[in-house]
């Protein structure tokens, strides 16, 4: 019994540290990742930014139960082919994106951003819908 409690405490601590690290990444983005980050900010961040109330982040938190970061920008396990599949086909209430919205070149740049080493990605993309999230968190 005692070891179960200790294991739970260690797991909670590890989870807390992982969460803190997710939120702590700051600094500049490598110049060659800027285009992909801009694509992410425009098309993906409204659902996938590191905010637990957003549709994508919320769904992935529940799908993986914390085993991988809920925010896509904090993941290191994404493969370009997998991202491309979801972007072109959608899933659940994530819409598919047409090449007229996200071109193949932009998708390649997006993939470069989402698969780059974490320390090259810089701070998470700016959440363009921040005001909306703010309003909702204030209950309006
Ligand atoms: C309208 C909200 C919304 C937008 C916009 C959106 N997504 Fe999603 N996305 C979701 C939801 C919700 C899921 C999880 C669905 C599920 O499996 O329950 C998801 C899942 C994913 C997954 C699967 C991850 C996994 O491990 O299962 C990837 C990859 C992904 N999105 C990438 C993107 C990218 C890249 C963009 C921008 C081009 C984007 N999404 C835009 C809502 C969105």
Task: Give your account of this protein's structure.
This protein is 58% helix and 0% strand. It has one domain: Cytochrome Bc1 Complex, Chain D, domain 2 (Orthogonal Bundle), CATH 1.10.760. With 140 residues, it is mainly alpha-helical. It is built from 8 helices and no strands. Heme C is lined by residues 43-44, 46-48, 55-56, 59-60, 63, 72, 82-83, 86-87, 91-94, 97, 102, 110.
CATH homologous superfamily annotation = Cytochrome c-like domain
The share of residues in extended strands comes to under 5%
The overall pLDDT average reads: 84
* Helix-strand pattern: HHHHHHHH
Secondary-structure class: mainly alpha
Each distinct ligand: heme C
Name of the CATH first level: Mainly Alpha
- Number of separate strands: 0
Please give the count of helices: 8
Distance between the termini: 46 Å
Oligomer: single chain
Flag low-confidence runs: 8-22
Q: Could you give a quick summary of the protein structure above?
A:
The protein has 8 helices and no strands. By secondary structure, it is mostly helical.
